[in-house]
Design a protein that fits this description.
The chain has 9 helices and 13 strands. It is α/β, with parallel strands linked by helices. The protein has 3 domains: about 10-175, TolB, N-terminal domain (Rossmann fold, 3-Layer(aba) Sandwich); about 175-240, Sandwich (Immunoglobulin-like); about 245-350. The strands form 3 sheets. Strands 1, 2, 3, 4, 5 and 6 form a 6-stranded mixed beta sheet that branches. It has a 4-stranded antiparallel beta sheet with strand order 9-8-11-12, with no helix packed on it. A 3-stranded mixed beta sheet has the order 10-7-13. Strand 11 (about 210-215) and strand 12 (about 225-230) form a beta hairpin. The radius of gyration is 39 Å and the shape is rod-shaped.
């Protein structure tokens, strides 16, 4: 069925208008812009048969453009956007063409975008048919055609998003971006749109541009889920903060709390035994010098002691040495427990914040 669309005057005037805007120093929205990697798509108004209300076709055209815009990866230009640049008299002189790619490409080229989406909506008995066509302008070829039959208007409206997604699916797959998922837990299973792609930590992965549902699952943790839009040739980073389940958190706090208590106990024991060691060795030297003074001996002369005095000095010296050895053991144990143990308060921020964003 022929599709009537404004062409000659629309093309000429849009080229002039866009050129004048660029010359005046306004930001360019061309597909080659280095600051905007979104895919440029011109969405023409859906054409209708005589038995389809024009307001329905107009509403559907707006919904198609809105669906592409919501994807976050398209720079959408509608036919209505350009019509604002064209006067009524000039529109009356515009030509028309059928649905051939070379003809439609002329419009899209004027809009400065690499792709164009057009379509038709018609009645087929009591049903409605929706046909969408995606054209690659530079090569003047049809990238994708889709069509579907709906028994009623409500079904058509409900299925419109799926049809738009279907017609641009191959384009989104070809125009890929990268996805980087940084999770707070290792060993979490990352899935994109329900398909597992690996476990954390993961390197950046190439994915089709467009909207995606990202989930991260790990036993003992609540599922992290986020809807993102991956832009072509850009990296999308997701910081996935996994929130522990109440059962996991209780077991974790009990385990880590016990280990942390042992670490502090060992540290205190290390301090106590170190003080005891210092006291024992200090008492040995003080008592020995006291005996040397009592016997009137020089500092470099051995002290003469009897059995009781010897036992007293030996107990002080070896008791101090033994306490020092025990203290080293306590300190070492404490250091190991602190170094290898998890922080009991690790998940406090996540629980208070109500989970991952």
């Amino acid at each position: 069925m022929p599709v009537k669309i404004t062409l000659a005057a629309l093309v000429a005037l849009s080229l002039v208008a866009w050129s004048s805007r660029a010359g005046a120093g306004e930001p360019s929205s061309s597909a080659g812009s280095t600051s905007d990697q979104r895919i440029g798509v011109a969405v023409l108004d859906l054409q209708t048969s005589g038995d389809v209300p024009t307001d329905l076709a107009s509403a559907l055209s707006g919904l198609v453009a809105a669906r592409l815009d919501r994807a976050g990866v398209f720079r959408v230009v509608t036919e209505q956007d350009v019509k604002q640049l064209v006067s009524f008299d000039q529109m009356k002189t515009a030509l028309s063409c059928d649905e051939q790619a070379s003809c439609l490409a002329e419009v899209g080229s004027a809009l400065g975008v690499p792709y164009m989406l057009t379509g038709t909506v018609a009645k087929l008995g009591s049903s409605f048919t929706l046909a969408l066509t995606l054209v690659e302008i530079e090569k003047a070829r049809v990238e994708k055609r889709t069509s579907a039959v709906f028994p009623e208007v409500d079904r058509l409206l409900a299925g419109l998003d799926a049809e738009v997604e279907r017609v641009v699916a191959s384009l989104l797959y070809r125009e890929q971006g990268t996805l980087l998922v940084i999770a707070t837990e290792e060993g979490g299973t990352v899935a994109v749109d329900g398909n597992a792609i690996g476990t954390t930590p993961l390197p950046a992965l190439s994915v089709a541009s467009g909207p995606h549902r990202i989930t991260v699952n790990k036993e003992g943790f609540l599922q992290f889920a986020l809807d993102v839009s991956v832009r072509p040739k850009e990296q999308t980073r997701i910081d996935a903060a996994l929130r522990p389940s109440p059962e996991f958190l209780a077991a974790y706090e009990q385990r880590t709390g016990g280990q942390r208590a042992m670490a502090w106990g060992s540290a205190i024991g290390g301090v106590a035994t170190t003080l005891a060691a210092g006291a024992g060795v200090g008492w040995f030297f003080v008592r020995r010098e006291g005996l040397r003074a009592e016997q009137g001996l020089a500092a470099n002369v051995d002290v003469g002691v009897d059995g009781a005095q010897y036992a007293e000095l030996a107990a002080a010296l070896w008791g101090g040495v033994g306490a020092a050895v025990v203290g080293v053991g306590f300190v070492t144990t404490s250091a190991v427990l602190f170094a290898t143990g998890d922080d009991p308060a690790r998940y406090e921020g996540l629980v208070e914040a109500g989970g991952a964003r």
